[in-house]
Amino acid sequence: MKYFNKISKALMITAALSVAAVSGVSAKNFKVAVGDSGGSTQEVGGLAFKAKLEELSGGKHTATLFLNGQLGSEQDTVNDAAIGVLDMSILAINNITPFSPSVGVLSLPYAMLSLEDAETLTQGAIGQELVENTIEDAGVRIVGWTYAGFRRLTNSKKPVRSVADLEGLVIRVPKNEIMIDTYKSWGISPTPMAWSETFAGLQTKVVDGQDTPYITINAMKFYEIQKYATNLRYLFLIEPLIISEQVFQELSADDQKIVLEAAQAATEASAQYLRDKESEIQQSLIDDHGMEIVDAENDEKEFIDLATKAVWPKFYDSVGGIDKVNAMLSAIGRDPVSE
Known about the structure:
alpha/beta, D-Maltodextrin-Binding Protein, domain 2, about 45% helix
């Protein structure tokens, strides 16, 4: 464990359980950190969680969303939740990976090729194992999943249709080794940058481009400073809803069940929102905001070949071994890989 001692965590949870057993938690307003702005899939999931939480608890519990990274960077919110000073957070899964490396299996480039793949993996046995690993590794519990769509490359300089077109571009990426190495496999060295700094970095030309889903591009108004977009599918962005394990254990058994059911409702609402809105938003970026959106050449074959060959083997050990990767591939009907 990187950020606090496991024994200390166990003692904290034991103490929390003892308190909960005696009194439980009365009416609670869950403080939820949200990295993105209004109109994002993160907000959609958060509002769905709040609505179902209030419904199931008869108004006893509610939630307040703090948008636009008001409560700190996404990685900071993992730390804060781990020590119990923050209740919940909705954040990109790549920002959990530094705390619980096995979650990185969902960030391997071109591992997931559709929303259905993402749902199968997160809501099945693999997702449950990642939940358990994250509790153990990071002191936070994944209770729900937000689906944002594929991370599409945007930039302010030129259309990108091939790996060669990336030359000369400075691309912002999260502080995530898998994503950094993916871009390196394509021949450029990306610039790691916190999400909260990204708009300013693009606006001031510190970086030329970034990658996020169309719903996020629209919500964050990146169209104001990014002219070009490429329909890459290298990474399907999943944004878990996490709760501090310490906070979760302070809840009564009935309230824990309510939180889990409300989070499941948020998961379902997020998936439906993506299905309903992504194409509409993509077209609006073209028609209403003047973005130029292009496809990668040859159905991304060059991007796929370079990334999977260079990146996947490097991270087999950190995500739990090649057997874990093959279990993921099997779950979504894809062929296994070998050493």
